[in-house]
Write a structure and sequence with these properties.
By secondary structure, this protein is mainly α. It has helices at 2-16, 36-56, 77-80, 83-108, 115-121, 124-135, 140-164, 174-196. The chain starts with a helix and ends with a helix.
């Protein structure tokens, strides 16, 4: 027993003699100020990513999409034939034609200013109203799919306008040109997909 105590005593002493370490904490007042412009930019980027990534990751356990496909759409034909819905469908078809027209314009002139056409053809309140009107023809399950497509359309229009901006005297680079073409392709696909649900 005495031998054990003699062995443990130096060990215990060594622990008590260890210097204590203090942890310094930073207060909010000492934190680096947040740049408002950078914060808003990051917030918008995160929101855009959430909208874009969400639908692509939406797959069931065995690999099938959890969203109903256009071939599975349940439609109220009486509502589909209504004047309001037919008018909105006509507008969506015009949106699709406008996207295709912008692509042709860009093919003819890589430095074309697309902003006026984008704002003229895709006025946000009108686009939303037409998309919402078309949605009324579907049952709740099908609306899960069309609502997803509608969100993508709104996001794609926003991203298209942002990527299409050019500064005076600075030509659009090949990278930016490719980015604009990519946004146009995504928007054309989204409008086409929505129209497939009404066939």
């Amino acid at each position: 027993m005495k031998l054990l105590l003699l062995f443990l005593l130096p060990l215990a002493t060594s622990f008590t003699l260890l210097p204590s370490t203090s942890v310094s904490t930073s207060t909010a007042l000492n934190a680096t100020p947040i740049n408002r412009k950078a914060f808003l930019k990051n917030t918008i980027a995160f929101t855009g990513a959430a909208v874009t990534i969400g639908p692509n990751a939406a797959f069931a356990k065995f690999g099938a999409s959890i969203y109903p496909s256009p071939s599975d759409a349940q439609i109220d034909t009486s509502i589909l034939k209504s004047d309001a819905v037919q008018a909105s469908l006509k507008e969506v078809k015009s949106y699709l034609s406008a996207v295709q027209g912008l692509s042709k314009e860009l093919d003819g002139n890589s430095q074309a200013d697309l902003i006026p056409s984008i704002r003229r053809n895709f006025e946000f309140s009108s686009v939303r109203n037409n998309l919402n009107t078309i949605t009324t023809v579907f049952d709740d399950e099908t609306q899960r799919s069309t609502d997803r497509v509608n969100r993508i359309i709104i996001q794609d229009i926003t991203e298209l306008e942002a990527s299409s901006k050019i500064k005076e005297g600075i030509p659009r680079s090949d990278i930016r040109l490719g980015n604009v073409r990519s946004k146009l392709g995504k928007l054309e696909k989204a409008f086409s997909e929505l129209l497939e649900f009404t066939v």
